[in-house]
């Protein structure tokens, strides 16, 4: 169909959107189309397109199997997967297995029938081509970025995800995950398998060459984290990481304003297991040698000369092996170029430029033969040397200073290389294409898109002045706002002139000129034709721009104008002007007589010289052949280019190679058989007239009906009815073929932005197989392809366009407006009636009411008021009260308008802003009403702001407070009211309660502090009950003067820290307050005890922090001496301390401190008592009685639940027996009180009991040779300790007992314990009897058996048991209190050890 073409750019940010077949056919997805090209080392040839997807192609893969290499598969953003035959360019199967956009697709290199696809939701689908079956997997709930089937194992597929995870799955086991490869931190862009099925090529260490149970191959991955990783699929882990090198870009201009993300593509060439290709930061490509040592393991592609590499990031790479065993690599990039590389030399073989937008303009240079300029929607200009022999795609790109879609181009007629351009944002500039300088930009911008540029002779005021200062040519630009500006190419910085002023002055025109849409200068520069929005064409004579004639032929917007060239052999052809508009017809006018013999007044032409009919929708461009006389080519929205013989009014040929509407055309300046066209399909195509099989444009159904009607009644002009437009016009986003907004012109003038550009295929843009793919029915009739669109499709398109129409706002004057839609006769009679009323004294009617309501708009004010009253009644009936409000506002009844809006609850900011015009009282009432309305709408902030406008601050605060908007209410009070305002404290307190309830304790505390309730603030913070909160609460209470609360919170915090073994933290918390000295001493004693017990390995508590003085080294003989020394050194506490740290004061404080009761169920660290602390303090004040009692309590309280700890504590307190309390501070203990004596006896017995037990354990130990083996425990004994007690006691014990064991014998203590045991037995018996009586049940069988075994005199009743209980209590009361309070050391048990 075509000779050469520039295709659309490959899609960006797709992991596999291009591939090369084994036969050397390259395919890449560009928008929703797949382009095919045959590649070789010398160049490429475009073959055609695969059309069928509705959305962007996101994945593509060829089948690399013999006999099936022409088959391929693609995935799209609409979730579809299509199988193709690249030879016939038709789809063989279309599937929709995905609910989300397809992100990757791959045809298995091992199994010729397996295709795997994945979507953005993480669903992986396996398709079996030969059976049509498919199965879905969901290995990971992540977004899939890429996938690749193993070239060695058919069922292994690697999937790369957005979060950096790579998953290796087995599709034969329902998608079972074999390995999860973790190492990348960001998106996985590409995956590539090693070409060899082993993992030995990269192992260089002998230990890695051992036989492995599993066989695998290497997998390469490229990620956004700037690394390439090599993975072992057998081990499931990475073996190599390659960091991308930063390469300084050389040459190759790139727009610095375009910020691009990194895309890292990898490719493992065939037959090169140790070499890997990857892209780099800025479009460079590197070849990695995976066996090379050292830092630089890579070689740069195209390093021999500048400009070979891509200038932007590379997305896809694929390779193909040629018949001569050479391997080519094809790469696609963001720079819109497809490059071919020789992998042997790493040099670029050829480059295929592509286009990234609509081709809005193309034009050949009149000076440089074969130099074609392209204006493209990707904000770039391409200049293509079409006559180059070495490189058939020799193009240069220009982007500097553009930054918008290039919509118009024009070469200078004499100056070589000077190219003017216009853009979508109204910019006009001039490029010198033979230099690297940025373009010159005109300082005069258009307000809308520039659609036409033309070089012509200067006209006033630019033509005034000296000859040497005048430019030979001016640049004229026509844009969407309907203005034509004249620019001085030598002084673009100067202001451009609007030629409309010259036209009005020269032709004495007073009325407004129609917006201009196009202009064309006659080649000799004497006449210019200007097309207008209303379809007229005005022809002016230069330089004064005198109007010669006006052509009233078209009735729709003029899109293009072209004069015939001046080198024709027939002079009459020099005056032919061709015009195309949105009415699908081309008219040619011969203006020879008008130009050669101009009349005194402008001539109006209504009949054309030639009429060219055939297109079915708007004409977008045209060009006269420079090689023929009267040969014209036109392009249209129907997607075809038509060549006409104008003199014969005959169609020559029709080109249908494009997929969408065409926008521009030009004839080759060197070959009369070649035409170039560009369109909305992002392509430029070169085609020959002699090779076209069609003669006329395709005709739609509507066009056939129109032709039949014209044959029946050719002279009668039919009014266009609803639905009578051609299908192509229905598909065209225009209103009656005219510009929709402010003079927007031409076919390309309604284009969307680059990302929103649609395919725009009309009903007649189908060729060959494209007809089948667009879902239309084709009929072949008389050599022309007639497309019949189904009624359902036409209806669907029409309804869709109607829904897209902007809804017309409701009229404020509907009654009077409806009167304008009456019959023509009635409307004309209205003119007579109005003239009669206006010019006669007698009134024949009353304007503004009744049948003449609409005349109130054209009569006096009273008539207008009458019309308003009638309109108001109509609005009230229709429920349009907002319109009533505006009508009253217009009539000056502002108070009435506000009243209506208030009653209906339809007040607005606009009405409120004009309310002061009605007076202060009205304004205040309106504001209050609007506040109520806003509250109903839950717009409380806005309501409070309006209350402030009428100085109702308290009401505004109360409004915010009542709706729990405390933050805003507080800000308002602090900004507008005095600082001591009571409402502020109330707000803080209310907010604190809400915050405390919601769990925002810190914010609640701040509110309490602001309200002056520091006590509550500290309590709130302490509610969380963690260490940091308690510490903060204690500090806050101390700062605010709440001493009692601060002390309580500090104690709680210190207790938690002590339990957690954070001794330094506990001392810091307690040290912040001087009144807590006694508690600091308690923590000190506890830390020392804990350290000593940990040293003895009796506890395994891990300490968070500790003090140096608690370290194991440097211990004294007793713990009392160590405590006394640390107190004096660290806390300044001694027997000579003064108040408030005096010993008596500390003892007094200590009495108020509660000590925890010991229990076997509580952890030891939670029941550390104050006895040792109290004993040391009593020792310092020489209170011997209290010292003895506290030492007894310190030893005895742990005897039940913590036997070994109690034994170790005895050893620490009395390392040399009870006779010596301290060697460093010796003294004789004097105690005269009975209780103290009993405590001393019990203490002595306790210490001796532990010494006896230690002696017994040592003698019974099997490790001691010759030790006695027989020991007896007499009179019962204490429960045996747990294993491991003996190692804790390491005191050397002599062979003989060195103390009097009689202290362990006490008849009073034994009698006391016997009585207590008897009392306990009677209590158990009584409890059982009471329980039996209350439940009405029998005794327990065991108890019943015991009663039966008793003798009759032993069976007791409740009364006898009570009597015995009383007797035992009397005996217990007769015993001394010292016996009952201070038990003997072993619990009153006599223990003797008999040596054999």
UniProtKB/TrEMBL annotation:
Positions of the Gem-associated protein 5 second beta-propeller domain: 370-679
Highest taxon above the source species: Eukaryota
MF-aspect GO terms: mRNA 3'-UTR binding
Annotated InterPro entries: Beta-prop_GEMI5_1st, Beta-prop_GEMI5_2nd, GEMI5_RBS, Gemin-5, Quinoprotein_ADH-like_sf, TPR_GEMI5, WD40/YVTN_repeat-like_dom_sf, WD40_PAC1
Compositionally biased residues, Basic residues: 712-721
Keyword match Glycoprotein: no
Gene Ontology cellular component list: nucleus; SMN complex
Region of interest: Disordered: 711-765, 1331-1357
WD repeats: 50-94, 218-241, 612-654, 655-697
GO aspect biological process, one term: spliceosomal snRNP assembly
Feature: compositional bias, Basic and acidic residues: 738-751, 1341-1354
Domain Gem-associated protein 5 first beta-propeller: 93-198
Span of domain Gem-associated protein 5 RBS: 1121-1383
Domain Gem-associated protein 5 TPR span(s) in chain numbering: 855-1063
Keywords, comma-separated and alphabetical: Repeat, WD repeat
One Pfam family it belongs to: Beta-prop_RIG_1st
Record-linked SMART domains: WD40
Protein name: Gem nuclear organelle associated protein 5
Gene for this chain: GEMIN5
